[in-house]
Amino acid sequence: MCRHPAPTSRVDPDPSAIRPIRGPTAGHYGARVLTHARSLARSVWHLPAPPDARPAGRIDYAFVGVVAVMGLVEATVLRPDLASRWLSLAGFLLWLPTLLVRRTRPLLTVTVFAAVVVASLVVSWVTDGAPPGDLNTAVVGLLIPYCLARWASGRDAVTGLLLFFAVASTSLVFQDLPAADRIGGTAVIVAAVALGAAVRSRSMLRTRQLDDVRRGERERLARDLHDTVAHHLTAIAITAQAGLAVADREPGAARDALRRIDEEASRTLAETRTVLRVLRTEDAPPERPLTDLLGLASDGPGPAVSVVIDAGLEDLSPTVAAALQRIAQEAVANARRHARDATLVQVRVTRQHDGVELVVTDDGQGSTGSGEGFGIVGMTERAALLGGSLEAGSSAPLAGWRVRAHLPLEEAR
Predict the structure, then answer these.
(1) Are 274 and 411 in contact (CB under 8 A)?
(2) d(C-alpha 214, C-alpha 277), whole Å
(3) N or C, which end of the chain is more exposed by having fewer CB within 10 Å?
């Protein structure tokens, strides 16, 4: 006989006890958007001014001079029917020189521009004259919103752009212009601001990348130096133990041990000087720098590489030798990667009276890159950290590329 389980009774839940699951409401989304907007506005407001703003140079002075002459010719010869042309020309020549400080003091530029525009409108209103028309040459005024977005601090950029938009909109309203021209003028100003912000963001990104490259190069060099110092300290410890073991029986051997300890300690002190303010990573240095440098020689694929190291460089400090190997390795890699139609890369290390010099050249017909990569930055940083210098470039148009590094020997002693 089959037995079936007794049926269980089903109890329906109380509808009043069921609570509906509520998703995010429009108020929640609105609060989140408002929070993000406040955070963005706060970050923009506290944005520092870029550190690479350069003062006006000869090109800037020439540019302002040429534009001033163009405005004068336009107002006197090309557009004699321009409304209140002398007032327009005077105002234009008043604010134009402030473009010389558009990178270092952009807020001053927009303040003078706004003051001149407002003063021109007030003068025309008091004298019952027509509002001054705009010179076509005054299109250079678009540099003002661009430079505010590109060079000003966040506080100055917001203040200056609000002031510029207020003055520009007032000028557009007072002038008898079609609606399409007003819309087009506003769009051009917005485009200038967007371009300045985009260039600024790209510059900030590249600055961070360069800082990362420099930091990484410092860390790799620190590891090289750390391992070199550790080698010297190990030699000192072993020599001291040997000297202690024979001090009672062989005083002469103990003196020799002390002499070797003094030599190793001097080398260690010289190496330690370069370790200051750099950090250590796990990137190991080459164990045999000069031997590894000779290993760069090859017959292909790609351009052949020849390596020549002058005699008498066997006593180089491991730190300097490792730096030479690193720089040569990067320079050869760049030549293989970027030299156009290159067939030969030559590497030569020579001793100079005050140091050692590394020269890497190729016979290519120029470079396929922009010359703005981070390889040169890393090589330059490594040479500078050892008290040396590095130059990279082409000696003539369509000529091969050359990297020359000079490292002082006294830093390795």
Answers:
(1) yes
(2) 13
(3) N
Residue given tokens 């250590």 in the structure block: 280
Q: How many CB atoms lie within 10 A of CB 352?
A: 11
Q: What is the topology classification, in CATH, of domain 289-412?
A: Heat Shock Protein 90 (3.30.565)
What type of residue sits at position 331?
A
pLDDT tens for residues 318-330?
778 888 888 898 8
Of 337, 408, 348, 407, the closest CA to residue 374 belongs to: 337
CB proximity list for 386: less than 8 A, separation 6 or greater: 221, 274, 319, 320, 323, 407, 408, 411
CB contact at 8 A, 149 and 197: yes
Put simply, whether the predicted model's pTM sits higher than 0.90 gets the answer no
pLDDT at 412: 38
Residues in the chain: 413
Note the pLDDT tens digit of each residue in 343-390. Answer: 888 999 998 887 899 999 988 876 655 455 567 877 888 888 788 899
- CA 102 from chain centre, in angstroms, equals 21
Could you tell me which of 325, 305, 323 has the C-alpha nearest to residue 383?
Answer: 323
Across the strands, what pairs with 359?
Answer: 348, 404
Alpha carbons 406 and 356: distance in angstroms, whole number: 6
Answer for the pair 345, 333: CB distance below 8 angstroms, yes or no. Answer: no
- Give CA–CA dist 169/121, Å, rounded: 13
The total of other beta-carbon atoms located within 10 Å of residue 243's CB is: 19
Number of C-beta neighbours around residue 249 at 10 A: 8
- Which long-range contacts does 297-301 make (Cβ < 8 Å, 24+ apart)? 297/347
Between CA 331 and CA 373 the distance in angstroms is 12
Considering only CA atoms, which of 162, 60, 52, 37 is closest in space to residue 107? 162
In the 8-state DSSP scheme, what is residue 311? Answer: T
